[in-house]
Design a protein that fits this description.
Elements (H helix, E strand, L loop, with lengths): L4 H17 L3 E5 L5 H9 L3 E6 L2 H13 L6 E5 L2 H7 L4 E6 L13 H7 L6 H11 E12 L3 H7 L4 E9 L6 E9 L6 E6 L9 H7 L7
Parallel strand pairs: 1-2, 1-4, 2-3, 4-5, 6-8
Antiparallel strand pairs: 5-7, 6-7
Helix pairs in contact: 1-2
Length: 219
Amino acid sequence: MKVTTDACLFGAWSAAICRHLSANSILDIGTGTGLLSLMLAQKTNAIIHAVEVDENAITQAQQNFQKSCWNNRLQTHHSSIQLFTQKNNSQFDFVIINPPFYQHDLKSSNKQKNMAHHSTLLSLEELINCIKKLLHSKSYFSILLPYARADYFLQLAKDFYLVERVNVKQTPNHTYFRTMLLFGMQPSIVIEKNIIIKQSEKKYSFEFTELLKNYYLYL
């Protein structure tokens, strides 16, 4: 799977939060090839558990983890999150989720892309039920969603407290296309922000650059 700009932004944003929270245990739901886990490992000292249902993706994640300098803190689980939640008794300080996006869009002929981008194997409702069992009273979780689905997810997540909402668009001339949400288990003042990835065709915004400069070498 390609490394997408919005996933990198989400990983950098979540990593900064985890570092601020001093999270010791992190769960990455649907890790794919391990990108988000690696980004969080770079910024924290946490033990990170990466769960992925697709066999090829989890094999790639394992290879990527083994080649990294944080391999002793990265653990993979070849499982659906539903089964992982049933078998796992642990709770985590932080959970990060980049879930299947395109619930109603046309599917690709590529089965792996379908699995990664469509919520046929994991609905948002099922995801919420799993998250409830994986968090303790001081935990947080972050999730990346299409902008159009964020309000629907907020309705589903009524058992959690919204801490921060960040809407993302490509340039000043584009409409918002992604939303990053941070939830906690305790009441909080809600922070709302907007991030533009590029100020112009060739120049990244200050906010994007500040978040990604430790990951994008050319920044």
